[in-house]
Structures are given as structure tokens and as C-alpha cells.
Amino acid sequence: MSQVTIAPRFSQDRGNADHGWLKTFHSFSFAMYQDFNHEKYGCLRVINEDRVAPKTGFGTHSHREFEIFSYVVEGELEHKDSMGNIEVLKRGDVQLTSAGTGISHSEKAYGNKPVHFLQIWSLPSVSRLTPKYFTRHFSDAEKKDAWVRVVAPVNAEGVKGDLREGAKQGEGPAPVQSPLTMYATLLSPGKSLNQAIKGPKGYIHVVMRSGYNEGPAHGATISVAGHILKEGDGGYLQIPSGTDLVVENRGDRVAEVILFDLEG
After folding, report:
1. What range(s) does the Pirin N-terminal domain occupy (predicted)?
2. What is the dihedral of CA 260, 159, 120, 213, to 10 degrees?
3. What is d(CA 102, CA 127) in angstroms, rounded to the nearest whole number?
4. Rounded CA gap, 24 and 39, in Å?
């Protein structure tokens, strides 16, 4: 572990806003929050942790040349796009839109409960791609005390890039057009996990399961590379190629953790 270094990104230092209908945190510069020290990391450009009030959300808007994926934590997220996809996503669902030459979409809370999800963007390795849409599902049981690969590069082993459009029909990770692999786990108290990282960079984030909190982080607690992180905290990792990253749950509750292996 002495080879792995981390620069913590503490929750209270992130950009955040309460718009009433939307409560959000920004790990990287986004919208009105701009910080040149936190613009991107490798191909990773956006990590927003969003809570959207019932029957509200992001109206139809357009994107191009981004890989955009949503990781649903709680509630239901209704997706509609210009490719004709309409889908309601629930906990455990991962949605990935390869915007390519351009798409329009809306993302709204479905039903009578708020939706909590991570909105993540990465920079594609190839420009002017044909837009595509993918969904996958990963149960809590799969993620319990194990790293589950939920997103991986299109050319990675086990990635099925030809299954698309909304039926959660694909197995394995969703295919991203970026040198990025995303893992997720639900780590029990007292447990630890190893994950070999291709590197040279990585990013880790502890999901805010205990609720929206603008102050110092609390809730689930993990240890990584000699640092303690709590819910909402993250960290920039420098990892020599092939090194195992060790994450340990030091708290009294399950920690939901997202890990990015950034090869570029």
C-alpha cells in the first residue's frame, strides 16, 4: 500500500447547491461551480451526486461528445431521449448514453419519491461517434463485499457492446468509449477488499447514503491508502500499474463505494 497515494477530496470542499427541486454536490467543476484545481482527472470529467424532488427533474437538453452515465442509489429515475428510449431506472440500474454526434434527453424523478443518483461524465477516446444508449442492472447481493465491474471500455474482456436500448438485456458492464473502468461495492463493517488497478490513476467516492449534508462528512467510514473517508468524501489516487488497492470498512454500517480505474 505504500505505493498508492491519495489526495482526499472531502465532501465539504466540493461544490454544492440546494435549488429546492435539486440538491447536488459537484466533485469537479460544473455549472456555476468552477474550480481550476478540480476540472477533471484523466478522462473523468463529472461526478455529481444529485437528489431530485418528486415529479421534477432535468428537462430536455442536449449533449455531444460525452459519455454520460447514471448510477441509481435510491428512488426511480425516468429517462427519455431523442433516440426514442423511454425507461424508468431503479436502484441497482446503471444507464449509459454515448452522446457522440449529439443527443437530447431528460432525466426526472418518477413517482412520489425523490431520486438519488450519481451523474458521471467521461471524455470519449473517439469523436463523432454514433449515439447509443445502454442499461445494465447490478443487485445489492452481487455488490455485497465484492467489487462489481459496472462500466468498462468497449474493447475490454466480457463487455458486450451490441446490446442496447432499454431492456437491461445486456450482461456484464456497460460499454464506455473511454479508458475507464468503474467498480461498485457494498462493503460490510470490518470487511476489506482488494482490487488490482491498471492505473496509473484512479478515483474513489463514498456514496452519501445517510442523506444530504453540507457540513463535514459523516456516516459510513472507509480506510484507503492510509486515509479515512466518510460519506460524500472521495479521493484522487495515484497507483502504479498492476498494484492492488485495498479498501477497508472502518465504520459501523455498510459503505457503498464507487471506484474508477483510469488508464488515460
Report:
1. 16-121
2. -60
3. 11
4. 17
DSSP 3-state assignment of 214?
A: coil
Q: How far apart are CA 8 and CA 31, in angstroms?
A: 22
- Chain centroid, CA 181 distance in Å: 10
User: What are the grid coordinates assigned to 163, written together?
Assistant: 446490446
119 DSSP β-pair partners: 48, 70
Q: What does 120-146 look like in DSSP terms, one character per residue? A: EEE--SSSSPPPEEEEEE--HHHHBTS
Amino acid at 36: F
Name the grid cell of 90.
Answer: 431503479
| Residue among 48, 65, 172, 190 at smallest CA distance from 119 | 48
Grid coordinates in use for 69?
A: 452515465
pLDDT tens readout for residues 69-119: 999 999 999 999 999 999 999 999 999 999 999 999 999 999 999 999 999
* Domains by residue range for the chain, with CATH: 5-262 (2.60.120.10)
pLDDT over threshold 70, residue 1 = no
Torsion of Cα atoms, 186 then 189 then 194 then 197, to 10°: 50
Tally the C-alpha atoms within 13 A of residue 36's C-alpha that lie toward its C-beta. 0
